[in-house]
Fold:
Amino acid sequence: MPVTVRPTRAEELQDVQKLIVGSINDLTERHGFGVMASVRPASFQLFSLRDDPRGLWVAEDDGEIVGAAFSWACDELWFLAELFIAPHMQGSGIGRELLGRALSHAEKTGAQRKALITFAFNTVSQGLYIRHGMFPRLPIYMMSGDRDEFLVTNVEAPLAYRPIGPEDLAALATLDRSALGISREKHHRYLLADPAVKGFLFYEGGDIAGYAYVASTGHVGPVAVEHQDSMGRVFDAALTIAAQESSTLISAFLPGSCEAALEIAARHRMRITYPMVLLSDREFGDWQRYLPRNPGFM
Structure:
């Protein structure tokens, strides 16, 4: 039977994540990075399916899921969060079929900008995206470090901060529009409902300087700041909070243009775990004022 492409069902999302993890680890092992991914709950995918089911597709071969695509949209931005094919089915044209369905989602949402983040060493995928008008714009680095080596080096007065609450959604949307050009209110609602993530608003001189989320795993992101010169202080403060979690590792996802965050990460002995790249059909966002959470959430 030929491979069929159809909308994803909620009960399949966890199996889809197993497929994606297998595809990622096959790719990273072939490029010398070793096993990198592990299966996690498909909570963001389920949230997005309920929000807009038009963005999730699977490819099926004789009852077996052999590929998947997942995209979301906020305001004028369409973002391809996942597009993976089972290793034994790569090169069969499934990727093109899934990307076609994903791009139809972009058209239906009226998106004015299209973007994604992929591994910098995944040249085959980048070639596919370039052929569809999305070009490499920005290196992004996954960085991590041992919490035991974390250095408290901020000699300035620490920033005031407090937990984010539902009443802060308007302020968060204003920050996102300023840094990214879009509101991500629905994604803040998702993060605030996640018991494994804590969000914080940081203040300078009584004014909001930015926000940051810190996961129980020690991962920091997303982060957005009002002014570029606040990024170093906000990111440093968020790392300090992350170092107080029980995880032995601290990590963050840092754009190559964000010198302030990269300098802080290096100071705390964080190292590049793997390189990625942002592709888009046009420039958008101030990446000195925004740190993504991960390649799928942005």
In short: The mean pLDDT is 94. The first helix runs from residue 13 to 30.
